[in-house]
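As promised in the previous annual report, we have extended the structural survey to additional targets. Below is the entry for Thioredoxin domain-containing protein.
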Amino acid sequence: MRIDPKYFNRFIAICAAITVVVIIYSTFRYFQRQVTDFNNNVSEIQPDTLSFRSFSNTDSLYLNNLPDQPLVIHFWSTWSDKSIGVGDFLRTYADDGNQLIVIAAAVRDGDEQVRDYVNGQSGKFHFVEGTDLFQSVKTPGLPAQIFIDRRKQIFDTHVGNDTTEIRTKLDRLIAGE
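The corresponding structure token record, generated without further manual editing, is:
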């Protein structure tokens, strides 16, 4: 079959548009599957058994040794501006008098980079090495958070830097819903 030359450009434009739609749809579906897998993997962990190598203290951090307060595990990295921004949001949220423990789990960074960053920070974050947990729950990207309630049970998760949605989840977590 031959295409009349006067319709060739339209044909190519239609093919390109269809290709773009397919790529966007496939990318969205792939990301959604990753988030679903992440949520399923997180639901299988026992938070009270988690421990992390600490950058803030010389000892390891054990979740079962923390007070019975809501907490969030915030996966971040020094090279991710979005995760740094969410970390700043979490610092402000926790400093506003909310009884929230923030575990800042560094991912795929060298110890020296993380220590340099930690030394310049204020606030009550627990800075820990989080790459192992990040990989074991197959976190689809940075930033990401795991919300844990007062009873040390998984409450919710979040992937991305939408601080409005994070605030909504934190408010529900603090309220004990």
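The radius of gyration is 21 Å. The chain has a mean pLDDT of 92. These points will be discussed at the next consortium meeting with the crystallography subgroup.
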